[in-house]
Amino acid sequence: MGMTHKPFKAVIPAAGLGTRFLPATKAMPKEMLPVVDKPAIQYVVEEAVDSGIDDVLIVVGRNKNTIANHFDAVPELESTLQRKGDDDRLRKVQYSSDLADIHTVRQGDPLGLGHAVLRAKAHVGDHPFAVLLGDDLIDSRDPLLTTMLAAFDKRGAAVIALMEVDPAQIHMYGVAAVEATGEADVVRVTGLVEKPSNEDAPSNLAIIGRYVLPPEVFGVLEHTPPGKGGEIQLTDALQEMAQDPEAGVYGVVFRGRRYDTGDKVDYIKAIVQLAADRADLGPELRPWFKEFAATL
Question: Where is the Nucleotidyl transferase domain (predicted)?
């Protein structure tokens, strides 16, 4: 069938206060914390770009300048590296400023993810768009966003990323009630429950931080009342769309590698996993990890 629509844009909410990482985040957004040698948000921008999206809007908070500066050209740094003949680092620095057409908008008050998405309305306009949360890093070797964009193209309805979670952890997530579509790992979402108890969870499929949304979601968010914590919740808007037979919400079940950087322990695990897999760092680190683990 295939839907014809305007090109996708990407929206990356990065206005959270990052209180779990204080004092590191006192003057720097948590999305700028390095994961090995790149800020977390660069992995997310690269994921959008790798899926063919070149227009990226970052919704920033009060520490916005560091994010904007990271994706801007730095002529003085580039000329120093050029003079030194350090082509490898020069390429890395230029890469982050040539990645995409990057825009920023301020969220103002951090009133929840739904509010952050609503701040993107003027920029996104009538384009469909992907929302990528910086706490979830998806391994670049495992396709997710491209699959979600294809599912949107086919169905013209909102698509969310889902992942099977251990029932003991399910209370920490938004959880989807689903039915099969006849297509492997694509489900129709019939309802969403925020942080249910183990017994009340409709499935073991948790929502992770990737969404592909039609522009109609803005109208829904505009009349969505504040939910948990007085914040406008994207989940509430998606719940409304899932109940509407005209709109509908689909889920893509992700079975690849995801690194959670939203929690200190998980952030450290993400760095260790990504570093162990890198050709430049792994050969030296892997034997050391084994020796170190043996001493614990």
Answer: 9-274
CATH of the domain at 212: 3.90.550.10
* Per-residue CA distances from 248 to 2, 37, 126, 189 (Å): 16, 40, 18, 8
Q: Which of 27, 31, 25, 37 is nearest to 12 (CA)?
A: 31
Burial profile 90-129: b = 16 or more Cβ within 10 angstroms, e = fewer: beebeebbebbebbbbebeebbbbbbbbbbbbebbeeebb
Domains in the chain, number: 1
pLDDT tens-place string over residues 221-258: 999 888 777 888 899 999 999 999 888 999 999 999 99
Predicted TM-score of the model (pTM):
0.92
Q: Is residue 39 part of a domain?
A: yes
DSSP state of 171: G
* Nearest-angstrom CA–CA distance, 139 and 116: 25
- Number of CB atoms found within 10 A of residue 278's CB: 12
Which tens digit of pLDDT belongs to each residue from 96-123?
677 778 899 988 877 789 999 999 999 9
Cβ distance 170 to 202 under 8 Å?
no
For residues 39 and 31, is the Cβ–Cβ distance under 8 A?
yes
